[in-house]
TrEMBL record:
The UniProt record lists the keyword Hydrolase: yes
Domain annotation Restriction endonuclease type IV Mrr: ranges: 207-319
Organism domain of life: Bacteria
Record organism: Variovorax gossypii
Protein name, per record: Restriction endonuclease
GO biological process terms on file: DNA restriction-modification system
Length: 350
């Protein structure tokens, strides 16, 4: 058995289709009209790409073939798939039910696929050690996760109910052969930006638990120019933070903020409760912050609430934090010391 990383588009634009159809698709432009299994093997895929993309560099075509061929010829029933999600700080896992198939009558983007059963589509990235997060950060669209005992660790996590690897519930036997133990690292690129965010995420989770998360959100809002009132620890009646602009905070918008530091996604009822509290304190707008993200019922409501409520998950919170980091309170920056670095952009980002 194997663990495969399969991405749902550069921007995660195919994620919902993957989930709804219980399939992972190979959405490679230019291959829509060809049943790829007819080319037999890796060399056949290379030859096909030379025909389809004659102006591309040979090394580029080899790189593409090394992703397309495994999807077609190597992904098998019983293998597992990890899909790094783009719109939430989570990973999705599936079991392969059927290998590659080609449907020439399907919508052109979704003709190459493997059938899967989704096991969990919202496993927090913070549940994994940095070694696996490095592996999951590979830039490849399709690749086998062969390092760091990735498959064994993920299967152990599933047996333990997807508990965090750091809580001691996941024990993985080490069965490396001598050759594997001393193998040279491959020529793989990984997402440096995502790796840095993963490290920031872990520090935030460790140092801003519970009420500390509300303190952090309050500091971000102050750095954005709001006056804030942060409720003390304990029962708060659904009011974690009140924020408004102006010298004394008397201007609009008047924002009521509720902060949930839990790792699990919140239900629609939490959003509804925020609406009630907004009316109680005469807030014009609301902000619901949940570190663990939101269940589908909340996501579906987001467009309806666009002019009244904003939703921040862990990724949104980090985006807002980084945008105003230099303006944050000194005590916050002391707990989260960051520095700016320059790195080369990935070719597809240039």
């Amino acid at each position: 058995m194997a663990l495969w990383l399969i991405r749902a588009g550069k921007y995660g634009q195919h994620e919902q289709r993957f989930f709804n159809d219980s399939r992972c698709y190979l959405t490679w432009d230019g291959t829509e009209d060809i049943g790829l299994s007819t080319v037999k093997d890796f060399e056949g895929v290379k030859a096909l790409l030379a025909t389809l993309y004659p102006d591309e560099k040979p090394k580029t075509r080899i790189n593409w073939a090394s992703q397309i061929a495994p999807f077609v010829f190597e992904v098998k029933k019983g293998d597992w798939v990890v899909l790094p999600r783009k719109h939430t700080s989570a990973l999705a896992f599936a079991e392969v039910l059927e290998g590659y198939s080609f449907n020439p009558t399907a919508e052109s983007t979704y003709r190459h696929s493997v059938k899967v059963k989704w096991l969990n589509i919202n496993v927090p990235r913070t549940a994994f050690g940095q070694d696996l997060l490095y592996s999951f950060g590979a830039f490849m669209t399709v690749c086998r996760m062969s390092k760091n005992d990735a498959e064994a660790k993920v299967r152990a996590m599933e047996r333990a109910g997807w508990k965090s690897m750091s809580d001691g519930a996941v024990l993985v036997p080490r069965n490396k052969s001598p050759l594997e133990e001393y193998a040279e690292p491959g020529d793989e690129r990984f997402d440096v930006e995502q790796s840095a965010r993963d490290q920031i995420t872990k520090v935030l989770q460790a140092r801003f638990k519970g009420h500390g998360m509300a303190q952090l959100v309050g500091a971000i809002l102050r750095a954005q120019g709001f006056k804030t009132h942060v409720s003390p620890p304990g029962p708060d009646g659904g009011i974690d933070i009140l924020a408004a602009p102006g010298t004394f905070g008397f201007a609009e918008p008047r924002i009521c903020v509720q902060v949930k530091s839990q790792q699990s996604p919140v239900e629609r009822a939490v959003l509804d409760a925020l609406g009630g509290v907004m009316k109680k304190v005469s807030a014009t707008h609301g902000l619901l912050v949940c570190w663990g993200g939101f269940k589908s019922g909340v996501d579906r409501e987001e467009a309806q609430q666009f002019f009244h409520v904003r939703l921040w998950d862990a990724d949104d919170l980090i985006d807002e934090l980084l945008a105003v980091y230099d303006k944050l309170d000194a005590d916050i920056r002391a707990l989260l010391p960051l520095k700016r670095v320059w790195t080369l952009a990935a070719p597809e980002d240039v």
